[in-house]
Structure formats: C-alpha cells, structure tokens
Amino acid sequence: MSETYSYSDIAKMIDHSLLNPTLTVDELEAGCKLAREYDVASVCIMPYYAARCADLLRGSSVQPSTTIGFPHGGHTTDIKIAEAQRALKDGATELDAVINISKARSGDWQYVADEIKSLTALTHSHGQKIKIIFENAYLDDAAKIRLCQICGEIGVDWVKTSTGYAPSGATIEDLKLMRKHSPPHVQVKAAGGVRDLDALLAVRAIGVTRVGASRTAQMLDECNKRLAGALVG
After folding, report:
1. Which of 23, 123, 151, 158 could form a disulfide with 130 if both were Cys (CB 3.0 to 4.6 A apart)?
2. Pairing, β 129-133 against β 63-68
3. Choice among 80, 144, 160, 174 that is catalytic
4. Would you call 117 exposed, middle or buried from its count of C-beta atoms within 10 A (0-12, 13-18, 19+)?
5. What is the SS3 assignment for 25?
6. Are the C-beta atoms of 69 and 101 separated by less than 8 Å?
7. Is 9 marked active-site?
8. Is 152 buried (19+), middle (13-18) or exposed (0-12) by CB count in 10 A?
9. Whole-angstrom Cα distance, residue 51 to residue 28?
10. Which is the catalytic residue, given 96, 103, 129, 131?
11. pLDDT of 1
C-alpha cells in the first residue's frame, strides 16, 4: 500500500541546493525565487549570497541556509566559527557544517566533538539550527556510528550524509545506519543522489526528514501530478 502524503509533506523535505560554484548571480536569484514559489523547506546557498537569499525569502516560510567549512571541512575551528557568525548575521537560519574529515579519519574524536559542540552552541544561541555533514564516502561504518553518537550527545538538529562533492553521496544503507544510531531528537538529511520523487519517497520511508536537491522543480511537479491523479482516481 502506497504512503499517503500531501504536497507540503514533500516540499518541506527539500533544501533547494544552490552550491555549485559556477552558478551566476542571475541563476542564484532565479533559484531563490523558484524555491519560494515551490514553498520548499530551505534554500542552501553559497555563503557570499546568504544575505541576499534571506532578503529574497523574507515573508515566506522558506528558510535561508548556507554552508560552513564547505566542502572539505579542513578549515580551522576558529575560521568555521567566524563563517558561522557571519552567516547568522546575514540572516541564515540553518547552517550545514562539514566536520574535520581528516581528524575523524585519524580517530581524534575529541577534536571533532569540540568543534561540533562549539558550532552547535553558537548556532543555538542565535535560535537557529545546524546540520552536521559527515561526508560518508570517506568514512567506515564505525566512524559514522561514532559521529552519530557525538552529534546525539551534543544535540545537533540534523546529521547529514554528504556535501554532494565527494565520489558518492547518500545511500540507503548509510541513511538506515544514521537513523538507527541517532537519537530521536536528531533528524537525518540525505544529500547527493536524491534526484527524483521516487528516490525522495524511498529515503522518507527510512525516516529522513530533509534532502538536498537541485532538481526541485521536476520533483515537485511530479508530486503535484501524482496527487492530481490520485484525486481523479
């Protein structure tokens, strides 16, 4: 039996991704307007455009979001904190922060935890939300589980699979693992590889609440088409 869902159920799972570094200003403007028109969850945009994105989304229910330490995570913690401070000042309400992948692969979990804790405390002190990007393509399952435990203890808002710029993105296996090892108060975001409505519905069934997507219009047009067909049927 197929799951029943509304347009809003699906649209509010989507973070419309505008992170490709080659996007022009006109394309960023158009992307923000598209996200507002389709009433998605958020626009995840390049940091330099976060303030303009917040302006374009003002008065809507679409959140302006941006990235921290993107895409490789190798910035010092102080630089990530400075990025987060600027993003929050510019009006971003959700931050997608990349862990220090090198430190995670080296097993320096204290460093990783301290950095996540600092970023989370700063974001929450402004009343905003944070997603922690693992970049699972470079991690074994033990590291992914440890990160879920750390993020659960700290109280981040989402754990996220990937940046979309590694050799692979979200997999069903990783999403199941992250949902299993994260406490209920931590949500899961899939990024990289969710390219159509069926893929979105598949991760939704696991318990994923957000997906990063660049094919937002196609996915939501298909959603509307199916819902209209169900009404006719």
Report:
1. 123
2. unpaired
3. 160
4. middle
5. helix
6. no
7. no
8. middle
9. 12
10. 96
11. 36
* Domains of the chain in sequence order: 7-232 (3.20.20.70)
Q: Is 79 left (phi over 0), alpha (psi -120 to 50) or beta?
A: alpha
- In this predicted model, what pLDDT tens digit does every residue of 173-199 receive, in sequence order? 999 999 999 999 999 999 999 999 999
Q: pLDDT, tens digit, for every residue of 125-174?
A: 999 999 999 999 999 999 999 999 999 999 999 999 999 999 999 999 99
What pLDDT is stored for residue 3 in this prediction? Answer: 75
- Calpha distance 68→75 (Å, rounded): 9
Exactly one of 103, 131, 144, 189 is catalytic; name it. 189
Task: Provide the residue count of the chain.
Answer: 233
- The token pair at 186 is 């931590």
List CB contacts of 178: < 8 A, sequence separation 6 or more: 134, 144, 148, 159, 161, 188
pTM over 0.90: yes
In this prediction, residue 25 carries a pLDDT of 98
Residue 10 CA to residue 12 CA, distance in Å, equals 5
SS3 letters for 171-212?
CHHHHHHHHHHCCCCCEEEEECCCCCHHHHHHHHHHCCCEEE
List the structure tokens of 176: 């199941």
Residue 232 has pLDDT above 80, yes or no: no
Residue 96 annotated to the active site: yes
Q: How far apart are CA 11 and CA 37, in angstroms?
A: 11
